[in-house]
Each structure stands twice: as C-alpha cells, then as structure tokens.
Write a structure and sequence with these properties.
Mean pLDDT: 95
CATH architecture of the largest domain: 3-Layer(aba) Sandwich
CATH topology of the largest domain: Rossmann fold
Number of strands: 12
Strand order of the largest sheet: 1-4-6-5-9-10-11-12
Low-confidence stretches: 338-350
Shape: globular
Largest sheet: 8 strands, mixed
Oligomer: single chain
Radius of gyration: 20 Å
Order of helices and strands: EEEEEHEEEHEHEHHHHHHEHEHH
Distance between the termini: 41 Å
Structural class: alpha/beta
CATH class of the largest domain: Alpha Beta
Length: 350
Amino acid sequence: MSAEIFKYSKTFTLECGQKLHGLQIGYHTFGKLNKNRNNVIWVCHALTANSDVLDWWAGLFGENNLFNPEEHYIVCANVLSSPYGSTNPLSINPVTQQPYYLAFPQVTIRDMVHAHQLLADHLGVDQIKVLIGGSLGGQQAMEWSIIEPERINYQILIATNAKHSPWGIAFNESQRLAISTDRTFYANQPDGGSKGLKAARSMALLSYRGYETYQATQQDDDNEKLDNYKSSSYQGYQGEKLLKRFNAYSYWYLSKAMDSHNVGRGRQGVEQALSQVKAPTLVIGIKSDILFPVSEQQYLYQHIPNAVYSEFDSIYGHDSFLIETEILTKTIESFLGNNLNGKVVKMQTA
C-alpha cells in the first residue's frame, strides 16, 4: 500500500526562516473517521521509518491488535526530509529545477509538526484521541501537544526526551562525520554518500541496541575463529539493508532535526513548555536504553501535568519500543482503560 500525498499550495515557512514552495506530505490512513470524529490514533514515526505504521509497528497496530483499523482511524504521516513521499533533499527545487541535495533548508521537529497540522486540517481531524510516538516520534508528539494542547486527548511518549541530549547529538555528529568522509556525498547524485551512510548506520545500531543485545544475538560459538565474526557480518548487513531504502541526504537532515529538538526554545525554558501540555500523558522508559536513558523519561513525567510513568526492561535497548509490543499493549491498555472509552485509570508511578 503506497502512501497518499497531500500537497500544500501555499508557501510553508520553516523555523529557520527559509521557505518551501510546493510542500508535500506522504501519509497513510487505516480505518474510517467515525461519526463523532473521536476515534483518531495519530502516530509519529521515528528516524528512518515511514508512514505505513501497520508494517513497522505490527503487534501494536493492525488487525486484532490494540490499535486496529476496525475501531480506529489510524493516521501516520511521513516527516519532512524523509524520502517516503514528503518534501526532502532529493525533491526538485522549484528555483533550480534540480534536486536540492545539500541546498535543502534546515528542518526542525517543530517544522515537522506544523506540516502535520496542515495534514490534520486537510483530513478533517480536529481531535486526536491518542497521539503516540517513540524516539524522534515522541519528540514530535511532545511538540504537538504543546503547540495545540486542546487538540490532543491522550498522549503516549516512549523512549524520548524534552531536549536532545549532548550524548545523542554526539552520536548523530559521529554518524554525519562518517557520511562526510564519503566524497560522493558532495557529488549531487541520488546515491551520493552511500558508503558513508553504511558506516553511519553501523554506529547508530550500537546506540539503538547495546552490549546485552549483541551478547544474546551475535555470539560466535566457534572458539577457533580469527575473523569473520557474526557481529561484523551483522553490522554490514544492516548498513546494506538501509541503503536499499534510504539515502544519505535525508539521513543527514533528519539527524540534524533530531539535534534541534528543544521544547523550551522560544517558550521560556523546557519546564515552562512542558507545563503547557493538557493531555493526560503516559511516559514509557526502557531500562536498557543507552540512547534515551530513563532519566529523560522520568524528567518528562515530573514536569508534564497529569502524567504517569512506566518502565520495562528488555535486552533490545532503545529498539525495544518497536519490538516489545506485548509489553507496550498491556501498559497502554492500563493507561487508557477498557477499549479506549473509559476514563484514564491510575497506574503505579515512579
């Protein structure tokens, strides 16, 4: 199922002051908007994901899952800079009639949310029953709940933060350094920087997983080996896998957008910004997450009004929010109550 495309006819002004002409957003919808228009589940996706949430978040979304198209109107939109239907560095610059490449303007998390607000208006979505996102998706959800607190009924933030950390920025910068060592990145060609992107993905995986993950999944049983280890092969395989579906330019700009995340910008600080959230909010942390440690989710819980906190452990680190869907289902069900129709139930908080 390919993404639908929303085209915005007016000029879209970015937070950096630059303008996009001919903005478009790729998106998927599943199910139907009900008569009362109160069954919308809006998903904000993570860094290299796309808008087909039934594909990458199966187990939480889909037929017979907690969020299913039979009951809910599920919307997921592709973020600006990402190559799955939305305006991105490989889009045609109307001024030059050539792809933007590195002439693409800086995009922030806040810009992504402003674009998705336009899509929500287009779809007739004036109330979002549940706004949910993990990682960069959680950063978007948080921004939206601050910009339009009245539009969001419930919010779920998983493995995310209020302001991207120096640690997270350092990981992203290291990946960009890897991309920039590939001279083809500056050649203005669609596959430019591919070798650099492969190396960047290998670095990213280390932050998404962790020691326990590799111990459990990439252990070599052959005591006589001197080379060609499973974990070496795995890093290369994952890099090649990303190359088949992504490009270095989008990756570069998306990592920059993540670095820009700071809900306190222009709002008298982070705590003041978080105090503006009105939606009852479930914050979920993952004990083994080394990229977004639980201290960041506990901070959100402490400063978002009407928030509850839950955490779980898994060998899969940050990526657990995509893998441990059974745990997430139970936690979210407890938060939302029976069939998303009741009042928010109390949870044990940190």
